[in-house]
Amino acid sequence: GVAQDWLHCNALQYERGDGSILLSIRHQDWIIKINYANGAGSGDTIWTMGQGGDFTINSTDPYPWFSHQHDPGFLQGSNKVLAMFDNGNTRVSQQGGDSRGYVLQVDETNRTVTPILLADLGFFSQALGSAQLLTNGDWHFGAGFGNTNPPFSQSIEVFPDGTLSFTIQTSGVRTYREFQLPNLYTPPLKD
User: Fold this and answer.
1) What pLDDT shows up at residue 135?
2) Can you list the pairs that 93-101 forms with residues at least 24 positions away whose Cβ atoms lie under 8 Å?
3) Whole-angstrom Cα distance, residue 135 to residue 65?
4) What is the arithmetic mean of pLDDT over 153-181?
5) Less CB within 10 Å around the terminal CB: N or C of the chain?
6) Dmax of the chain from CA atoms?
7) Is 14 left (phi over 0), alpha (psi -120 to 50) or beta?
8) pLDDT of 48-87, one tens digit each?
9) Cβ atoms of residues 34 and 18 within 8 Å
C-alpha cells in the first residue's frame, strides 16, 4: 500500500510561560498544546486548535479555520497572539481561493479564538510558509511553494489591516521559511 502522511508535523514552539510545547500537525489542520512542563510533564495533549478541535472561533468567514498551516507560534510578549501562514489546502480544495496570512487572539481559558488578521495573499501556496510581525507593525508572510514550472516563492508584506504593501517573487526556488531581520542582532518577534 501507499504510506499516508497523516501526522505531518512542521513546527514546534516552546512556551516559556508554562513550559508547554505547541505542535503544528499540517495534515490534520491542527495545532496542539502538549503538557511538557519543562521536561516534567505527562506529554498529554492540553488542547487541540482547528476544525473539530477544542476551540470555537469568533468569525463569520465561510471557512474560518486554518488548514495545512505553517509556522504557527505565539508572538513574544504577546497576550496570546498566534500568527501563522495558512496554506489553506483543505479550504481551497472545497471552495477555491488563496493562501492567507492568519493572526488569532487566543483565549485559552474560555477556549475561543478571534481573528485579528485574515489577509488574502493573492495566490495559493500548496506547501511551505512563514509568518512574522515586523517592528513597524506590518506583517510579513513567506509563501514558499508556487506550483509552476519553474517553481517560485513570494515574500509578502501586508499592512495591519491586511491590505497588500508589497510582494517580491523569486523564480526557480521554493523557500521553506523566511524572515525579515531588522539587523543582524535582533531576532524575529516569536518566542
Assistant:
1) 86
2) 94/63, 95/62, 95/63, 97/124, 98/122, 98/123, 98/124, 99/123, 99/124, 99/125, 99/129, 99/143, 100/66, 101/131, 101/139, 101/141, 101/156, 101/158, 101/162
3) 27
4) 88
5) N
6) 51
7) beta
8) 999 999 999 999 999 999 999 999 999 977 779 999 999 9
9) no
Q: Taking 90 as the threshold, does the pLDDT of residue 130 lie above it? A: yes
Range 27-30, long-range pairs (CB < 8 A, 24+ positions): 27/68, 29/65, 29/66, 29/67, 29/68, 29/69, 29/90
* Nearest residue to 160 via CA among 185, 134, 178: 134
Amino acid letter, 152: F
Output the nine-digit C-alpha cell for 181.
531581520
List 102's β-bridge partners, or say none: 84, 118
d(CA 17, CA 176): 28
Contact between residue 180 and residue 166 where contact means Cβ atoms under 8 Å apart: no
Q: pLDDT (tens digit, 9 = 90+) per residue, 19-48?
A: 999 999 999 999 999 999 999 999 999 999
Name the residue with cell 543582524.
184
CA 176 to chain centroid, in Å, comes to 13
